[in-house]
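This section describes the prediction task in plain terms. A model, or a person checking by hand, is given the sequence of a single protein chain and must write out its three-dimensional structure as a string of tokens. No templates, partner chains or ligands are provided. The sample shown here is typical of the held-out split.
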Amino acid sequence: MSIPIVEMVPMARTIVEQILRVKPGEKVCIYTDTQRPESITQLLAGSARAAGAEPVIVTITPRDIGGVDPPLPATAAIQAADVIIAQASYAIIHTETVREALKRGARICDMWGFNEDMMAHGGATADYKEIKKLSDRLAQILTEGKKARLTTREGTDMTVSLEGRPGAVLAGFATEPGQFCAFPDGEATIAPIEGSANGILVNPFCMEKQEFGFIKEGITFKVEKGKVVDIEGGMIASQLLALIEPLGDNARNIAELAIGTNPKSRIGVTIRETKKAWGTCHVAMGDSRSLGGTVESQLHMDMVFREPTLTVDGQTIVKDGKIILK
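The expected answer:
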């Protein structure tokens, strides 16, 4: 569905002027690929120019998964920029390229998978000040917690250690040097202690790969000592095993446990919005370094669970898809 340009202009300005707070004279790199809407790319570039910045558009061939470093010419443009808007088909936050840019003080908004409809509707239009308040409270619980347990009616039952690991907030703002956000945003997240995850993950609602998308067949992940040791199911299970096998043992790492906090993100419309939806939880495989973990991988793939229950040190903070805070 094509959205009139006039309806998308306000969101492009919001991203540039509020989320990233672009300043006159700054260098802005808009990193995109040939599968993303050029209408959004040009609106972002126009908004950056209107803010007095100098935008440069870098267009690559789409990558197959998230967590893959950009090609060298694109990396050079990213490293030369003050502000990076990642408008690609998959996330680049979990890459060494982005980690180096953040160390240098760049500000980054990763809006992978964004389409025209999302420029006018859904999670991007939420009240991000309220989302940050909720995300801050949940991240504090994760930071102070020692052990978390994720369960679902489908049969998921996994425990992880959080002890000594800080939680993090992704709430739609990257206004200070070295900050990043995703967009649409809204989550409290943590990288579980390496080697601590045990249990099973059953039938995620969706997975962060276009070919898998919203899962229509049964799939079970067996987790031992922090890693996915087996994946059982039909064709998707076989395809996933074929995907991660060449990437090495680190691709099997349980890299993230997160709670969606955006009440306007729509479940089932896009994978991008579903993972941020209020009351969902997602678990990632692969790279954890961008979230404070120690594992580096060419993969970072989220799997999202609907109507989960999450407890931290025995305190229920999500119950059947509803966030519960005292």
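For orientation: DSSP finds seven helices and 19 strands in the chain.
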